[in-house]
Amino acid sequence: MASRVFWKGYLKLSLVTCPVGMMPATSDREKVRFRTLNSRTGNPVVARYVDSVTGKAVDEENEARGYPRGEDDLVILEEDELSEVALESTRTIDIDTFVANDSIGWIWYDTPHYLKPGDKVGEEAFSVIREAMAATETVGIARLVMYRRERAIMLKPCGKGIILWTLRYGDEVRNEDVYFAGITDEKPDATTLRLFEKLIEERTSAWDPAMVHDPVQEQLLHMIAARKKGRKRKAAALPGTPPPDNVVNIMDALRKSIRSEKPDGK
Questions:
Q1: pLDDT at 250
Q2: Which helix (H) or strand (E) holds 130?
Q3: Which of 20, 26, 218, 242 is the residue whose CA sits 20 to 30 A from 133?
Q4: Least confident segment among 92-101, 125-134, 229-238, 240-249
Q5: Beta strands of 79-169 (E only): which ranges?
């Protein structure tokens, strides 16, 4: 079932403007979710904020937001102060910059959304913008207020529509060089590398969404269905990956792996 449009506005490039609608490209609505219950009564448990010192529940009207500036030292900000820095919501995606479509690393990608024309009249302008980006192998960069914050966004052609990705803020992406600094620059042995390439070729296949199915979700749904019928169904053990043996000779291990990938084992 198609997702409902949750945002309506305009896509603008220079003097060309068209109405658009946006929908989330992903969903976790189908995931099994549980509520915490009182096992004695079966009643749902209600969560409440509790004062960490007095141990007493805090009424909603007394809740405030604070920023830690030191140990046990918080700066309290009032709601009217926070509202002063809130950005006014904009309904126009004004593309002001284009970059090569392969120049933005995957780590900057945050949340995907589908963007489509808002009506039949705007389809022509929408299609021209989409096809122009596809022809020039570029993506558009703009800014938009989403989820109560201004976000940098990327617009990328996708079939008949456009994928709108929110991009992570600069302070959210950690520098990879810090984490990879201790890895040697030494190139692997050519023979060993060819064997690895052969192993990869043996395991290469076309992408299939079934590769990322959730076996735990399936087991939970079966258990819930059985419980609805008054039966208690024991979950089957899911296959796991055993810990690897200590590899003494990488070449022997590679040749063994390649042999195991062949149908006849030779």
A1: 61
A2: helix 123-136
A3: 26
A4: 240-249
A5: 92-94, 97-100, 109-117, 138-146, 149-158, 161-167
